[in-house]
């Protein structure tokens, strides 16, 4: 195999590429010779963190184009793709499209049941100490990732002030699900895909397991999976392969927004055969492998990247 498996005129277009999975994939693919276009939506104050990451990509000798714009606005999408056509030139083509947009509502669908403190109270009584003292100590060590005290740590707090509404659901399903199709269709209509192109989306175990506050995002993930299958079938004759990556629980900025994320991480570490969380780099490595010519026959799949977390009944 040559030093790089990709043509020098090939690009990766990453939607949501300034953090988490998107940024890790930009780093990995740029290191393997792909030019990178990142579409992200960040405030000016966040750029002091992001710009050094972009500079590291440029330092690898590839081209990098970034657009700090709303990837979900259809009018802006058209303007952005027109600009990208100019950047790519006559020979530039999109080899990889990664949909890594994390913009969804994390609201309950009904008021939360009051938390149960029986375990903490009974243990405190047996030890002859105040339950509040015990709880504070448990919370402190749980915050240091001592997962074994999860049962007596303070349970996740969920807001019941604003419950999930119809508009919340619709916006989330579009943002994190069906917008993959819009981007794929528009790229194809402009003739921007390479002859052997790959589209990727990102799902989670929330596609089959109900997490509190995750209903809208879960619906979006299932929609994303369905859209990817449709692309895999209906656009195969254009040379487009479409697959979804199901990552294990990963400590990303998006995860931190999920109510009870600390407990999700603790449960994942307890289940995972390797005793650790999935990392963005783990996922980026698999996206790279699936982008290689040798992976051309993988199409329409949901591929789990979690170190065996999903099959493990083990708890530590």
How do you describe this structure in short?
By secondary structure, this protein is of the alpha/beta class. The protein has helices spanning 20-31, 47-58, 74-88, 118-127, 131-143, 166-189, 215-234, 253-256, 261-271, 280-291, and strands at residues 10-15, 35-40, 64-68, 93-99, 193-203, 240-247, 302-305.
* Overall CATH architecture: 3-Layer(aba) Sandwich
Number of domains: 1
Low-confidence stretches: none
CATH superfamily: NAD(P)-binding Rossmann-like Domain
Q: What's the helix-strand series? A: EHEHEHEHHHEHEHHHE
The top-level CATH class is Alpha Beta
Helix/strand-derived class?
alpha/beta
Number of strands: 7
Quaternary structure of the protein: single chain
The overall pLDDT, averaged over residues, is 93
Largest sheet: 7 strands, parallel
In the CATH hierarchy, the third-tier topology is known as Rossmann fold
Rg on CA atoms, Å: 21 Å
Tell me the number of helical segments per DSSP (H or I, 4 or more residues long): 10
Strand order of the largest sheet: 3-2-1-4-5-6-7
Q: Can you give the helix content as a percent range?
A: 40-55%
